[in-house]
Input
Amino acid sequence: MITRVSRSKALTTALLGVTLGLMNCITQAATATPSEDDIKTYLRPMEVPQPKSNLSTPERVELGKHLFFDPRLSGSGWISCATCHNPALGWSDGLPTAIGHGMQVLGRSTPTILNIAYQKSQFWDGRAATMEEQALGPIQAEPEMAGNMENVIRDLSDLPMYRKMFDTAYPGQGITNDTIAKAIATFERTVVSSDSPFDLWLKGQNTMSVAAVRGFDLFKGKANCAACHSGFNFTDNGFHNIGLPNNTDAGRFAIKPIKVMKGAFKTPTLRDAALTPPYMHNGQYKSLEEVVDHYNNGGTPTFDNLDPNMKKLDLSKQEKKDLVEFLKSLTGSPLMITYPQLPVK
Amino acid sequence: MFRTGYLSTGLMLMGILVAASASAGEITIGQKDKSFVMNGAKIETVSIKVGDTIHFRNEDPWFHNIFSLSDIKTFDLGSYPKGQSKPAVFDKAGMVEVECAIHPSMILKVDVK
Ligand SMILES: [Cu+2]
Output
């Protein structure tokens, strides 16, 4: 599987890359090479995390994929997970905030499901601890899919092909809330980022522009982005109020009523972020340029709160461009997805 | 002579140490690499006595916000940067779950006896 990378091999390749990169420098005065610390911090972890109670098998992934793309899980029979988490739009929907059952406009934007397996909690406010716990939420939520689990289980059980798929994926366990959630989560764990120019650069290839490398230095240094967007998945799995001027949503405070959580939301991954405008939980920024302008201004306190890591940055025009170049270098090649042929009676 | 002298000083010192830890009540627990640490080692639980104080010291280059919403002890130390430390007194027996609001994977169980 592409998701299993032997760390020692990757490290060797990366270290080899440092040497090769140094040689490159001499011959063509190319871009700077990553430090050993960069390689350690940003290299892909060896494995995609998965719970012991729901280990991945090809049958489970395939079943989960069918369910993810099946609109018959919804009350209208018209909305699937992929309606909002659309692989053709970076596993999101391109909307400021989602549109659900009966064309209702929802209060929050659709996050990508890329790399959610690496997250410590799910949803913008972290209210679900696991992907299995998250998966049944949208099916039953009236504004999203307005489905009913009893009907879903009845309808799926009516289709011999699904009965067979459940039985090979989860032998003897039947078609239940539990197996539906588990299968969907197993599929989602295969939706992981592929090597971007940044990752290839870490492994020693000359894939980053000079501007993008300058942007990376700003990201870790003057612009202070890495205080929150840290590590391989560019998130601290934490919650921060970054002072979005239009925000009226108390976010994490509803889950943890601690002052600093007023208006705080989960730090999202930045991998493939260039593919998923508009940005933020309320979709208020149309481009990465607008996002960088926001951070440059230091944010506006809402609910009388602003994360203490937020401050005015004083970035020059060129520095802002460099940061955007860096963010774009985190875009991998798209995951090839074949749509499943869904079971019919 | 010399020997007994040393010995008694030694005993006296030990006595002070024992007394200090018996009524000690002062522990420092660091926040480092988004974990709780004591004496340089990562910890997930700590056992203390009723009336003890824990000083929570931030050793990371970013902010932490230590709090607890446990039944027997609720407090919110607010957010503070590297190098700063804030105390919390644990005045009732029981299990207190201390967390960081910013980084929810940081959890410390304090067993107050
Ligand atoms: Cu913290």
Summary: Confidence is low (pLDDT under 50) at residues 1-29 of chain A. The longest strand of chain A covers residues 239-240.
